[in-house]
Amino acid sequence: MDLAIGRGEPRRLVLNAQKLAFGEATADFILLSVVDVTDARLAAKLKDDLLREKAILLQHRVANSLQIIASVILQSARKVTSDESRLHLTDAHNRVMSVAALQQQLSASRLGEVELRAYFRKLCDSIGASMIRDHDQLVLEVKADDSTSEADVSVSLGLIVTELVINCLKHAFPGGRLGKIEVGYESQGPNWTLSVADNGVGMPKDAASSTPGLGTSIVDALANQLDATVIVAEAHPGTIVSVAHVEGEGGAKGDVRVARPTSAI
What we know:
11 strands; 5 helices; 25% strand; six-stranded mixed sheet; three-stranded antiparallel sheet
């Protein structure tokens, strides 16, 4: 209970009542203890706040370190003479920058519940700024409901979005063609679906028999952690990749089901 004393802050009291038994006594005896826990609660809150601030500071440091690493990788990409090496280094740079953006978004959330719509929008803005040269040529949009998630879950979702969007930017719009990528998220109770759709050229006909790339492995592993299923399907035109979690459904975690494939992850 809170006990108001004058105009100051109320004191927080904890009352504990216990019935005492004295054999065949005709009367009931109650032992009542009152403990003032105001100062203890304040000290605990201060400790929690300090730990939270320390974690946020650590996230900022991690994000800054990742950006430094990305810069070093980009400088190396500019110096190499091999086109293949330059491509791999540029790809590594984009992935490191995306992870750095994730860290920055989580720092802004103060480690609490993450609003996914704003989170995905800021993440896609970061990806678009580093990988899309002409925003009139390629449009990257987010359509999500008001869902929130815990910070660790949002990390996995953000990494999935990063891999799928990077894949679209690399493969769906060759030759400078116009296009659109849409990131979607909706949930109902414990069930949710994350999707990334493009209106690009689609997959080659032999994509289903090709060896999965790094992006496929990353998305599959993250979906496995989230107990979700990955489904790749035609979007007419383009491709839509959905990662869905449904409570109580059977099937292996992280299974990739391909329906009339048109684009490689």
